[in-house]
Amino acid sequence: MATSVAHQAPGGPAALGSRIWSWVTTTDHKRIGILYGVTAFAFFLLGGLEALIIRLQLASSGNTVVSAEAYSQLFTMHGTTMVFLAIMPLSAAFFNFIIPLQIGARDVAFPRLNAFSYWVFLLGGLFLNASFLAGAAPNAGWFGYANLTSTQYSPGLNIDFWVLGLQVLGVASIAAGINFIVTIINLRAPGMTLMRMPVFTWMSLVTQFIIVTAFPVITVALVFLMFDRFFGTTFYSVAAGGDVLLWQHLFWLFGHPEVYILILPAMGIISDVIPTFSRKPLFGYAVVVYSGLLIGILGWGVWAHHMFQVGLGPIADSVFSATTMLIAIPTGVKIFNWIATMWGGKIKFTTSMLFAVGFIAMFIIGGLSGVMHASPPADLQQTDTYFVVAHFHYVLFGGAMLGIFAGIYFWWPKVTGRLLSERIGKLHFWLTIIGANLSFFPMHFIGLLGMPRRIYTYDPALGLDTMNLVATIGAFTMGLGALVFVVNVVWSRKRGTPAGNDPWGGATLEWAISSPPPVYNFSVIPEVRSRLPMWAEDGMTPVPETPPSPVHVPAGSYWPALAATGIIVMAIGAILKTLLITLGGVAVLVVSIYAWSFEPFEV
Amino acid sequence: MALAACSREYPQSALHPTADFGDQIDVLFRTIFWWAVGVFVIVEAALLFVLFRYRDRPGAADPKRVHGHTLLEVAWTLAPAVVLVFIAVPTIRTIFRTEAAPPADALTVEVIGHQWWWEFRYPDLGLVTANEMHVPQGRAVVLSMTSEDVIHSFWAPKLGGKRDVLPGRTTRIVFTPDSIGEVYGQCAEFCGESHANMRFRVMVDAPEVFALWADRQLQPAVPVDSLDEPLRQGAQVYLTKGCLACHAITGVSAGVLGPNLTHVGSRTTIASGILPNTPEGLTRWLRNPVGEKPGSLMPQIPLTDDEMALLVAYLQSLN
Amino acid sequence: MSHPATAHHTSTGLDSRKLAFWMFIGSECLLFGSLISTYLVYQGRSVQGPTPEEILNIPLTSISTFVLLMSSLAMVLALAAVIRGDRTWSRLWLLATALLGAGFLGFQAYEFVTFVHEGLTLQTNLFGSTFFVLTGTHGAHVFIGVVWLLTLLVRSLQGKLGSDKAMNVEIAGLYWHFVDVVWIVIFTVVYLLS
Amino acid sequence: MSDQPAHSDHKHPSVGTYLTVAGVLTVITLVEVGVFYVPAFARVLAPVLLTLSAAKFVLVVMFYMHLKGDHRFFKLFFTLPLVIAVVVAVALLLLFGTVSGSPS
Lengths: 603, 319, 194, 104
Ligand code: HEA
Ligand code: HEA
Ligand code: CUA
Ligand SMILES: [Cu+2]
What we know:
The structure holds 4 protein chains of 4 kinds.
Chain B: H1 2-9, H2 20-53, H3 70-98, E1 107-114, E2 117-122, E3 127-130, E4 132-136, E5 141-147, E6 152-155, E7 163-165, E8 171-175, E9 181-187, E10 199-205, H4 207-218, H5 229-240, E11 248-249, E12 253-254, E13 269-270, E14 275-276, H6 279-287, H7 289-292, H8 305-317
Parallel strand pairs in B: 1-5, 4-10
Antiparallel strand pairs in B: 1-2, 2-3, 5-8, 6-7, 6-9, 9-10, 11-12, 13-14
Helix pairs in contact in B: 2-3, 5-8, 6-8
Chain C: H1 16-41, H2 52-55, H3 58-84, H4 87-117, H5 126-157, H6 166-192
Helix pairs in contact in C: 1-5, 1-6, 3-4, 3-6, 4-5, 5-6
Chain D: H1 5-8, H2 15-37, H3 45-64, H4 72-95
Helix pairs in contact in D: 2-3
One heme-A binds at residues 45-46, 48-49, 51-52, 54-55, 75-76, 78-79, 82-83, 87, 141-142, 389, 393, 396-397, 400-401, 439, 453-454, 475, 478-479, 482-483 of chain A.
């Protein structure tokens, strides 16, 4: 079933139907990467829209833009969407597109599993958002504390959507995680030793490891909740002797590692961007790599810092406080190494570089407020207030999202063959960075001066109207920035400057091939002799423009998409409380898995 | 004084403590804050310096390819570690101080969280109230907290940090208020639709005033039969319209679903701090509880204007 | 299950599917770790019976544990036979493994039914909830394993499981042994230490 | 898949080893059940049983899953998550007071 390149006429005027079909059945990591990117960005806009409505409601104390119930749904879906449907899959877009190119592979280790992950993610995301159509979007916050989520206190479908949706998304994440670990370990080009891998690939590897270990824990927590809601078990039932803290421990055992899942890929991105635009190798490569590993491991020992207010006792508080503070050290080391990389360099302020620098500047602020949370007594005044909201938007938006924008501007030419406009890009950057600070900085004060989070209205007597208005204005400034970015994308699709192989003078392998890369990536897998193959004398063997002999790429497969459909049908059956539909989903899944296993598929 | 002004401007501020618990946190927070400011200034300044100094200038030579520097790496691993020691030591000291056992003569108040109001019980004094807690100035207070339904969190920022109010568990806060006055507070853990409307007040009274208040609270309500005419009719409305099923008025009714109303007239606000305790406020509340407080578990009970006026007058008289 | 993109050539010389499978098993460690932790945390917290001491049948479970243990032996022997290219024995041992696994499931089904008759269901108390979800999850793993083994058996009968396909059996074996190893922990922690 | 790269770097144990291991596993299981019924062991039941079960665990993983002598990546992929799982389990037992003194 393998097609050789010659048959794959690129850009041929194929019928729309077959073009769509080729995307549905694709197993090409680059196309899957694009699918991830486009889908996740759409979810980002949706999550941003939710944020804008939230900010509109909070612009002044007496606002009635939305009802209390709608507000609960908005912040729950905003948090859930941004974390699971925007930032994680945006990172996945980079994993897909960039990692195989950076390590010199033809594809990921399991291309069909990769397609499967995408389809599960897409359908899971749609499923979660379909709750809006049912008028029952999840409404218990993104960490859905028990026992508010029990049938007794949340009788509607809201939490059912959430439980099922997150479990489905977990499947996608774990499958992709395993796939990328194997890809990175096993498909490196000759000479690409572990310590020659680009830092982005390294940080992705650590991220995948965290995903693979942390997601089972939330899966178990969700299974308990699902059983409580669907089958009447008593895991989180206080009357039956259950403990509401069980959920909190299981959730944060996942939830804290999750925040590193969100930030490490962005840290990897800027570790590749900064050296490129400083024309200097990354300072302390090995230290940056090891500190990433350390963050991944230490991240497992701090979860209860989200629970200081429940009264764990002084000893547990002290232990978790200390472990949390420790994480500041490897993180600080990274910051210092980035600054040292630029030191003595020749810094070119491209849009990508601006976002990378913005990342550092913002992340320091978010990290420092994190350290303030790490002190339990101080945190008792901060937790569940806008001070926390400020903290995590500085690290999530100021960190993860700015890092992702840096990556988008950096690799866009590789993906599309054309540069994004630098002029529009800079406008995007300044609107975003000014808007973010305008919005999130006042939140520190809003929190300390007495505003809890997750409230749809607040007492005018608190004296917080003005600051909230400023935060709202900042949010809309960011929104404008996002629109400017969309304009940039549309504009540059047709009119962007053609990029050539290597518009930035990058150091890593992906810049050795044409933009966009051919289906088979490298015409000949190069042998790598340096950590910076493009910068070193004789860093790698040459990659000719055309392959010396035909390269075989696999034809697509529709089984992955069908298997994903089976899974989502199971969830739909559960929501509709119709066993037959669920069983139908199981059947589709089983058939797809068998067909998939026996389908001949070779590269 | 600027601080006092500030404090009036921000009645729910965590930065203007009026109890020892809050003070200890404040001192600790300020310590950490200044360390953080120090780190912030140094690191951001370094960043800005580098960006400015090493920006690409026309004709600049290509940079040297430096790969690292072991001594520097060690230095900037150790430096944050040292800073963290200065943060961690006072942190741990404050943890043990603020979680220490309360003094023996402390006043115990049992806090019970409900969707979406607060019940306060004084077991030593044998009295029960709702949404407004009175405590004496200068005496240690122990809050012993639990929840009837979902997780709430008791947060009166001026007195100190918050603590979750968990079903099936008992948590504790200990503080000694140092100045007289009204302290704003609010539920800080998302607990459902009207989480935003689950507010409360803590009234810190001079010890004599507190004693007086406690005495008054212990008085049972005047029996309905001995009430003067319009009030008696108001009480009849209360008794016939179903209020008694959920509310307790000592000597009149013994409901447990809603707040104890024996001395509801003595409160400054009703429905956990969202409406003033005035005839207008009460009327608005009774006309449409769910409209004032989305999701509220108190049903709307149809009353004529006359009945309403009588009922409100009666409730106001309960002080 | 699926054929990796590059079966022939990997940077470590290791088989990609085997690598993936070990990582999957690592992931499963946390799945079962969380389930077992929950069982332990909730031990003795049920507000009403039946309690584990009243209801668990140690002799019976010892036998089923032994059955599962022996299935692991059959599994390694099956793999050895496949590697040797010994058709007959590979089929016999695969069949034996699957049958022993099915036997274990039989014991478990019997146990569950008995418990329900004695008044312990998912809903009865915390013990019921944690016990059934933990052992049920394990049982589901065994079930999938049995189906997998039977699939391999069919492939073998079709003559499509030569020694060149030993990796398919080895991976199924890894899964099977892992499920066994999890039961070793469950047997001790849930049954013997109650 | 004509070649077997994974087999080139380690040897599977012989059938004899498998049988020996099975024998040891059987004996340990018998001892476990035995220990369970001997009242004299009641006080040290937990440590004894945990040790025995750990021994079985290690035997199966090392010999039946041939992790012994297998590539370091396999060891790493299994051991690191396993260690995390065990540490987390112990931490949870401590936090919930299952092991010693109940908090709050
Ligand atoms: C990208 C995601 C991300 C990242 C990277 C972090 C990073 C950190 N976080 Fe954050 N955090 C979140 C996302 C993230 N967090 C989210 C989403 C929540 C809220 C969830 C919710 O409730 O909804 C949260 C909540 C949260 C809490 C709980 C607050 C509460 O609810 O009460 C705590 C408590 O300790 C905390 C601490 C930290 C710390 C210490 C770091 C550290 O890793 C930061 C380290 C970085 C630095 C310190 C700056 C750079 C270092 C130097 C320049 C060196 C010198 C520094 C010193 C000497 C101090 N975070
Ligand atoms: C990665 C994560 C991430 C990101 C990027 C953001 C981005 C933003 N967040 Fe969010 N946020 C969270 C994660 C994130 N957030 C989480 C986890 C919570 C906690 C939820 C909970 O409590 O459960 C939270 C909660 C949260 C709150 C607190 C709500 C509450 O507690 O009551 C607020 C309030 O201001 C807020 C605001 C914002 C704003 C203004 C942005 C802005 O940066 C957004 C900027 C983007 C845009 C503005 C997009 C532009 C879109 C358009 C212009 C329209 C597009 C058109 C179409 C869709 C057709 N967020
Ligand atoms: Cu009670 Cu929020
Ligand atoms: Cu955290």
